[in-house]
Amino acid sequence: MDPEIMTDTIVHDHGEDGIDRRGFLKCMAWAGTGALWVMQSGVLRSMPLTGTPGDAAALKGGLFFAQISDSHIGFSKEANPDVTATLQAAVDRLNGQGRRPAFVLHTGDISQLSKPTEFDTADQVIKGIRTERVFYVPGEHDVLGDNGKQYLARYGRKTRGDGWYSFDHSGVHFVGLVNVLNLKPGGLGSLGAEQVAWLKRDLAGHPASTPIVVFAHVPLWTVYPDWGWGTDDSEQALALLRRFGSVTVLNGHIHQVMQKVEGNVAFHTALSTAFPQPAPGTAPSPGPLKVEPARLRSLLGLASVTYHQGQHSLAIVDQPLAPAPAGMAAAAPAGAQRDSFAAGPAVVGGARVIRIDNFSFLPPELHVPKGGKVMWINGDDVPHLIVSADQRFRPSSALDTNDQYTLTLEQPGTYPYFCSLHPKMTGRIVVE
Predict the structure, then answer these.
(1) Contact 414, 432 (CB under 8 A)
(2) β-pairing, 313-320 with 36-40?
(3) Which of 57, 110, 129, 307 could join 63 in a cystine, given CB atoms 3.0 to 4.6 angstroms apart?
(4) What is the spatial distance between Cα 353 and Cα 348, in angstroms, rounded to a whole number?
(5) What is the DSSP annotation of 284-307?
(6) In the chain, where are the structural domains located?
(7) Which overall architecture, per CATH, does domain 10-320 show?
(8) Is the domain defined by 347-431 classed in CATH 2.40.50.140?
(9) pLDDT exceeds cutoff 80 at 285
(10) How far apart are CA 265 and CA 288, in angstroms?
(11) What is the rounded distance in angstroms from the CA atom of residue 125 to the CA atom of residue 106?
């Protein structure tokens, strides 16, 4: 890293938790329109944003940085037809703080479809933040089609492997991890053995008293496995972090604020700047949640973080882009306001149709004759990417809403497949 950019930053060159939905809801700490979270001795404690003068004084001084997540530049559906404007609103709100952040962490899904123009637009907006540096990790929407090559060329030039890295600032050790590549059918996010081995080496030289901040896109704890909200091999990484007295894990992906504490590790997921998603288990599937336009910005936002050297405490303030309108709740509604894909013919242009609706393949198993054509049609408001689980047919490109992918299968047999963006989505074709 160029020392003229940030003289006090050093870039290093080197599971499942068994909680069912009821237990999950019991251990959650939810934030509404905004809350202040102070980590002391590895435990997050909440205070209202309208705290006492003493609370405000406690946040002054020390390291101050911010987190932005899930910008999804390029998304233009009904849930938010102008995501560039809401990202700009987040930048304006951050610039309006009383303090300038030392740096900003963007925890992935910068773009919607990994298009160069989408990254260009995001860069133009984000460069308006009054800060010295922006650090990135990729979301699954940032690595479409090229396994992250374009992302790495733009944002990961001084990283290792698929884009992981670490740096030190003001006595805190920061680690950026990548868990959106090399996903397996039916699985969650994945770190991989190479990255975990690197993490072990990276942490080895730091005493247990060092405060650690880990940031990645997909949560490193299992928020809701039915929707793929978790990381398969996160326990291997968390085991390496347990010897440290203060660990904070910052994630995006789920577009809502959730908190969890396990011993000395505090987990925190961030709001999106693009669109909200339903609370876990309250809808048939995840995905963009349509709300009244007047409420949208109260469900989007960013996080500001303060660290006091010598106290090993982190204070996280989640800030919506706007307050909830009078008489309207700030929290997202329990039921997902998502349109189901309209039913249509099972055959289009001589091809048997598999519809993608609410993060499912319909039908999940399709029988076709030898030499038969299969067509996938995406009815969701998010892209999907069809991949053969055993590499027996070529993958699709990213299918946006109403996009189609047609394949002719000549050889009899069973063809399992999945969505490489959302690997909990699986299906199979039987050629007879």
Answers:
(1) no
(2) antiparallel
(3) 307
(4) 7
(5) SS-S-----TTTGGGG-EEEEEEE
(6) 10-320, 347-431
(7) 4-Layer Sandwich (3.60)
(8) no
(9) yes
(10) 30
(11) 13
